[in-house]
Write a structure and sequence with these properties.
By secondary structure, the protein is of the alpha+beta class. The chain has helices at 12-23, 38-44, 66-74, and strands at residues 3-7, 30-33, 50-53, 59-61. It contains three helices and four strands.
């Protein structure tokens, strides 16, 4: 399964999301910065950071903890 962490540069919440993913045992994900994409900024705005499953398109909005991430990854 491919995961994407949608985020902004210089974002403290995004830094916390990286730490949360590590605590959940998730080390394989692709970062997607939206700073230079007006379309993504309009879509995600204040929802950042967002964890997206590329296989299902499901998204987990911040705030999330390690337990929520593990459940999100395990969901079918």
């Amino acid at each position: 399964m491919k995961l994407t962490l949608i985020q902004r540069d210089d974002c403290q919440l995004c830094d916390h999301a990286w730490e949360t993913l590590a605590a959940a045992g998730v080390s394989d994900f692709d970062p997607l910065w939206i700073d230079d994409d007006l379309g993504l900024q309009a879509r995600y705005g204040e929802r950042i950071p967002v964890l997206r499953r590329e296989d299902t398109g499901l998204e987990l909005d911040w705030p999330f903890d390690a337990q929520a991430v593990r459940g999100f990854v395990a969901a079918r």
